[in-house]
Amino acid sequence: MIITAPICFSNAGITIKTRGNSNHLSSSSFSSFFYVGSLHCFSKGCSKLSSRNKKNGTSSLCRANLITDPDDFEVGRFFGSYGFMNITSYSKFQPGPDVEYSTKDMEQLRVQDVGEGTVKIRLYEGRIARGPLRGTQVIFKVYPGQRAGGIEADMMAANELKAHVFLQSNPKEICQNIQILLGGFETKTGEQWLAFRNDGNYSAADYAKVKSEAVSKDRNLGEEKLWNRFDQEQTIKRRRFFVIKLLRGAMGGLAFMHDRDKLHQSLGPASVILNTLVEKDAAYLVPRLRDLAFSVDVRYSVLEEGPEILSEGLWRRASAAGAFTPMEKRAFGIADDIYEAGLLLAYLAFVPFCEAGIMDALSLQRLLESTFQLDLEAAREYCLADDRLLESVKFLDLGAGAGWELLQAMLNPDFRKRPIAEAVLNHRFMTGAVL
């Protein structure tokens, strides 16, 4: 339930006033992290961000019309938390200090830069309490302060803020497939509260989980469910249409970012939010990318300055793959995002069509990368022999194997041969021509 009474922030503490009852939740105060005409946020990380914005000529946060006064917000219920994952791929290799790999081997070797749980994010519902957007529902994404999350939490929060401000700097070019930042503030204890427009609490991972559980339920009903073949066929058709529209939305957001020299670098089922899970409402589905904490700026002027801490892993992989010049590094970074998008495609082609527990993201990744070394033709033959994976195979088989063709291109071991996001969107599997 959203708190309807005003939330008062004072130097003595945070006091929520509700019908004569007050509860002191903290001994810290909230202060705006913007000053008019300049950027003042995220303590240590943001003074650097401010100078960086001026140097690169990007718009200030004030120009982005963000709400920065904590009194303008009302905080509702806590509804979840999660840890960031910044993994481009699973690898079975366990190299020792004396083991050397060729450039080709190293391009296959993907490392986990930041494991889940390194920085725990809390999520709250809320709304804007006053001003032109009064009543607008928001989701608060709360980064812990340095005491709880270390300097990395500050860097991630600042990077996510910077990425959204950059992508929203032109009000005439707002992408509907990227989550919209409305404002935020910093607490006295160093927590960073980012307020996003509430366009849905569901993720692509939630969708896949719900549908796989529905498949399990139908299988358990056995013959009681099989009497209506037409209904079963319609369910599969709706699921295919929903998944392709979900993927188109995610790729549309990624194409928008790449066109503006921004990488996502944390793309996965949990980083795509949905406004509905109902397949019959697919016409109204609007997928949106979130979690830009690991976003990387690949403008040539920035690449020439050297890597930032959060992108060091990416550029190590780029060097191992033979990408050294700014142009090669930019191409590698874009291809790295496409690889992650390919894993997302594989996930959504399998998990929603299988029984719960048959396939998950990591198992599928291991199957494709370790077992079949990204040979999708061999992977198809394996899946075809397993009746539990039959619907997934049929889905990717549409259009004379259009799904497998696209997946093979996106997961090509040679980053130079992977398609760009626009090419993925224009592929016949993604246009819906195969349905």
Automatic annotation (TrEMBL):
InterPro entries: Kinase-like_dom_sf (IPR011009), Prot_kinase_dom (IPR000719)
SUPFAM superfamilies in UniProt: Protein kinase-like (PK-like) (SSF56112)
Superkingdom, taxonomy of origin: Eukaryota
One GO cellular component, as annotated: chloroplast
A GO term, aspect molecular function: ATP binding
Coiled coil, from the record: none
Protein kinase domain location: 108-430
Species of the source: Protea cynaroides
Protein name in the entry: Protein kinase domain-containing protein
Cross-referenced PANTHER family: PROTEIN KINASE SUPERFAMILY PROTEIN
